[in-house]
Amino acid sequence: MLVDDRVTTQAFTDPTCPHIDQAHYDSGHGPCLDAFRNGSAIVVESLEAEGGRYAEFAAAAMAHGVYSTLSLPVLTGERSIGAMNSYAGADRAFGETDADVGQVFADQAAVVLVNAEAYWDAQLKIEHLQRALAGREVIDLAKGIIMKTTGCDANQAFETLVKQSQAENRKLRDVAADIVARAQRS
Question: CA–CA distance from 130 to each of 15, 85, 142, 165, 184 (Å)?
Answer without folding.
Answer: 39, 40, 19, 21, 23
